[in-house]
Amino acid sequence: MTERKPGGMSFESWIDRQIREATERGEFDNLPGSGKPLPDLDKPYDEMWWIKQKVRSEGLSMPLPPTLALRKDAQEARAEAVGARSETEARRIIEEINARIREAIRTGLQGPPLNLMPYDVERVVSEWRDRQGR
Are 62 and 46 within 8 A, CB to CB? Predict the structure, then answer.
């Protein structure tokens, strides 16, 4: 445990002395990342940086609120449908995500507003056809 600052000594002098003594004892030798640039130093400040770093280092993923997760799933489903191998598959993908969207609208989900309506199946299938050159 660190000792208390002696009376009459400025904080700067006290801290400098502790750092100098720790350096002399070799307590800063061979630290992980020694001699390497600080990661993300050039990125804008993010007050949640340490949480994001911990999540990355532990190999976890940040859980999204249910409404945001559904929005993300809907975007991915739409992209998957437009790139589907068949019209039947494109329709199935959109109908499945539309069922989830309708259920969320009907029952409500936690998180920010959903701001999502079911996709127009025929419009997505039309995009699929255009992409296929049909």
Answer: no
What would the mean pLDDT of 7-26 be, rounded to a whole number?
A: 83
Evaluate whether 104 touches 70 at the Cβ level (below 8 Å): yes
Closest by CA to 115, choosing from 79, 65, 81, 80, is 65
pLDDT digits (tens, 9 = 90+) for 93-106: 999 999 999 999 99
Q: Global pTM?
A: 0.56
Whose tokens are 């025929």? That residue is: 122
Which of 100, 99, 87, 77 is CA-nearest to residue 134? Answer: 87
Alpha-carbon distance of 114 to 60, in angstroms, equals 25
Distance CA 13, CA 1 (A): 19
